[in-house]
Amino acid sequence: MNLLIDASKKEFIKFVLFDKNKHSAQKYAGVKHDYLIYIDKFLKKYNLKPKKLTGVAVVVGAGGFTSTRLACVIANMFAYTLDIPVLAIQANQPFDPADLSDKLKKRRKSVFVSASYSGPASIGIKKSITF
Fold this sequence. Notes:
Elements (H helix, E strand, L loop, with lengths): L1 E5 L5 E7 L4 E7 L5 H11 L9 E6 L4 H18 L3 E5 L6 H10 L25
Parallel strand pairs: 1-4, 4-5
Antiparallel strand pairs: 1-2, 2-3
């Protein structure tokens, strides 16, 4: 079973468990830094332990800067610790479980993803500081 992490919407984070034939999704509203708590709840809902994951996909190119970076870090963490493939997909890419499952199976392990964003980061610095 594969896991999709989608933090492309500001109102919620979405997780999808999928394989070629089926998928189950859940949205969680709230604080984004609680991703791991939400993933744990989501996997427990389907009686699935993380070590049973065979691949992980993460949505990039939309959503907040921090949300996207956190989602990518968590996806890479699962890929590294479980020795499974990880794949970044664009937010505007249609979700096709069979196609995504095939892409994950073909993807080499130990190749990690990096975040891409819809625009430049806005981290709150309003004026430059000179020394």
